[in-house]
């Protein structure tokens, strides 16, 4: 699966100006932008439509990203159905501290689970805008990306026949384990990686949220978080050892730790319910440079991963997709290649800003449980500063909402 993969024998090749590999938020947004400009493209996805529309993922979307979707006609359901969040709450030292970032900035977050957004984007691309998409494809490979005649091949799920698609550009939107990232020549790629040395137990509970906003519990036992998903389902996180087995966390232990780590005077007890998902996420980040090689442009998790510490991943994917989709349209319809030429640099400005914020916030969340009195003390100092310094509060609000980076 390299850029030099030989072309397979097949029938008559297909031709599209752009092949998008991966039908997540980034790939589907790029596809929709192209179709809105009457540019033909083909989206290839290894999973079924039903799978990607149900795959559980986070759902905190920054306002600038929603406005970008709205501008492109992709936010109708989101704007009708999403919850608006204007504050979050930190709990530490047995007390609660509400942080009203909406009052400080005039901006807010939208809470709209990623499966719903993906469902909207698939429907708009395939059913409304008539975009071509192949689900359940196998053995996707990219070829000749360092020439002006790249192509993508895959096994058709229905017949097993090998298909070849010739194109002008390939958009690699297939995530960390996808074939497009692996297609970059290893001698020309640098992967900057950071491991936090901690895990998060990600939980979905059939229970209403216990507060009207996101909760962050900074506790000597470890971090805990509550992220409302819907009136009936709540996302929780518990800090745990990296690589921990979810089976080490039975129902009783989970709720005991959540009660302890999110405790604060004057708050009602947590609304408990059946746990419908338990998985351990090892906290790490990476950035792939370059994001572009020849006619292949990476976007989303194929190019960078930011741990869910700051809820930035889907927002970065949408940022990439806006820039890439618009740049491809400009090149293919007007011959203007300035957007493609500056694509990676423009993406990486926001990527590195979010990575830095994630590291800063990790110390706030996890310092108390580090076992290091110095880290615990500096984490507490950061928390106190948020609620005593207007300058520190404004800076945090900008980074938390993603409004500190312009493009």
- Major sheet attributes: 8 strands, mixed
Total beta-strand segments: 21
Instruction: Give the termini separation.
Output: 34 Å
Summed up, the helix count is 13
Q: How much is the radius of gyration in Å? A: 22 Å
Low-confidence stretches: 1-9
Pfam families: FAD_binding_3
Keywords: FAD, Flavoprotein
GO molecular function: FAD binding; oxidoreductase activity, acting on paired donors, with incorporation or reduction of molecular oxygen, NAD(P)H as one donor, and incorporation of one atom of oxygen
InterPro entries: FAD-bd, FAD/NAD-bd_sf, RIFMO-like
Could you describe the 3D structure shown?
There is one protein chain. The chain is of the alpha/beta class and about 400 residues long. The chain has 13 helices and 21 strands. A hairpin with a 2-residue loop joins strand 6 (about 90) and strand 7 (about 95-100). The chain is globular, with a radius of gyration of 22 Å. The model is unreliable at about 1-10 (pLDDT under 50). Keywords: FAD, Flavoprotein. InterPro entries: FAD-bd, FAD/NAD-bd_sf, RIFMO-like.
């Amino acid at each position: 699966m390299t850029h030099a993969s030989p072309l397979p024998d097949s029938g008559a090749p297909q031709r599209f100006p752009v092949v998008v590999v991966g039908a997540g938020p980034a790939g589907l947004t790029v596809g929709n932008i192209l179709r809105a400009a009457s540019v033909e493209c083909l989206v290839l996805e290894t999973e079924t439509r039903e799978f990607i529309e149900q795959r559980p993922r986070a759902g905190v979307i920054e306002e600038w990203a929603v406005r970008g979707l709205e501008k492109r006609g992709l936010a109708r359901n989101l704007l009708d159905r999403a919850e608006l969040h204007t504050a979050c709450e930190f709990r530490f030292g047995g007390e609660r501290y509400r942080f009203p970032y909406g009052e400080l900035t005039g901006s807010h977050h939208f809470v709209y689970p990623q499966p719903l957004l993906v469902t909207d984007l698939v429907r708009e691309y395939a059913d409304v805008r008539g975009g071509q998409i192949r689900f359940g494809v196998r053995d996707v490979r990219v070829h000749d990306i360092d020439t002006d005649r790249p192509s993508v091949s895959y096994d058709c799920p229905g017949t097993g026949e090998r298909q070849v698609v010739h194109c002008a550009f390939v958009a690699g939107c297939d995530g960390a384990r996808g074939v497009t990232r692996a297609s970059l020549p290893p001698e020309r790629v640098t992967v900057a990686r950071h491991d936090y040395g901690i895990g998060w137990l990600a939980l979905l509970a059939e229970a209403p949220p216990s507060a009207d906003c996101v909760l962050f519990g900074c506790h000597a036992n470890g971090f805990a978080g509550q992220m409302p998903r819907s009136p009936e389902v709540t996302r929780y996180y518990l800090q745990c050892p990296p690589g921990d087995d979810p089976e080490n966390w039975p129902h009783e232990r989970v709720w005991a730790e959540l009660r302890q780590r999110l405790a604060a005077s004057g708050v009602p007890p947590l609304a408990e319910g059946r746990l419908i998902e338990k998985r351990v996420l090892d906290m790490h980040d990476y950035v792939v440079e370059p994001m572009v090689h020849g006619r292949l442009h990476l976007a989303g998790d194929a190019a960078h991963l930011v741990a869910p510490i700051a809820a930035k991943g889907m927002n970065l994917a949408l940022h990439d997709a806006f820039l890439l989709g618009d740049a491809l349209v400009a090149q293919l319809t007007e011959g203007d290649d300035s957007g493609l030429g500056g694509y990676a640099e423009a993406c990486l400005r926001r990527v590195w800003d979010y990575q830095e914020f994630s590291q800063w916030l990790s110390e706030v969340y996890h310092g108390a449980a580090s076992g290091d009195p110095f880290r615990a003390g500096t984490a507490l100092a950061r928390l106190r500063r948020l609620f005593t310094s207007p300058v520190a509060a404004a800076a945090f609000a900008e980074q938390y909402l993603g409004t500190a980076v312009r493009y």
